[in-house]
Structure formats: structure tokens, C-alpha cells
User: What shape does this take?
Amino acid sequence: MNDFKDKFEMQVGVFFDDTRSTSFSFPAITPGARTVTDYTVRHVDARFVLPFYVGSYVPVRHAELTITAPRGVVIGCKTFHAENTLVTYTREEKAAR
Assistant: This one.
């Protein structure tokens, strides 16, 4: 699949904030089909990391967010509206190489 469409997200009444979106379509999807989407985002400035939404209008069986950061960087997790869900937060530190 190579048909990715990248565009700036412009909203009325909102200043230009460099927000971009990428859209694509899975070809030949039929009812009951299962799809897998896997991607990597690299943030050069951690102050501008966007939220991770576990679900949307598409049913989600498994969603995972992995953050890799240098030792000493403090990372936390806040969940909103996730009561009575299976959302969990785990932290793993690996030995320095």
C-alpha cells in the first residue's frame, strides 16, 4: 500500500499550528476483515507530543503505545474516560548498552 495522503489540518478560528494528518485506505476490505496498522512517530521536542487515543470510530481489539526515551526522562500517564476499561500502564527500564 503506497497511497498515503499527507495534509495540514486547518480548523476555522484556530491559528496555524503545524498539525498534519496522514490518511490511507485498506484496499478490498470486506465485512469482518481484520486489519493491522503499525507506525512510528519521532518527536524531536517532547513538549509537543500529541495524545494517544485508544479507540475511535473503528473497533479496536488491541492498541499499544510504546515510548522510548533516554534514562532520566520522566514519563507519566494520565487516562481520561477510561473507567471500566482494560487500559493499563506499564513501565520497563532496560540496562544501558
